[in-house]
Model the fold of this input.
Amino acid sequence: VQLVESGGGLVQAGGSLRLSCAASGSTNSIIAMGWYRQAPGKQRELVATITKGGGTTRYADSVKGRFTISRDNAKNTMYLQMNSLKPEDTAVYYCNADRGFREPSWGQGTQVTVSS
Done:
């Protein structure tokens, strides 16, 4: 499975961005997808996940109420709507595909920078 993120950029605090992750290849093997982020000098952390059917979502406490994860299976695309952005949200955001017993897939990452 190949994953390509887009939608990152520079935004002022309080602003919004929408990230997209387009999947291609053996997409039928995907059972869940998620967004992770990694800030400079920090470990990669979970931001949000969503099951294949989209019925179950999970969020990091730090983004609850501000970020919304969704997916369009017809387009093989996942989204992350980010509102009320804070400087601490600055990071490289990565798309992840959970393929069960298979090796997970990762995108190349997209930079999100929030200025104060």
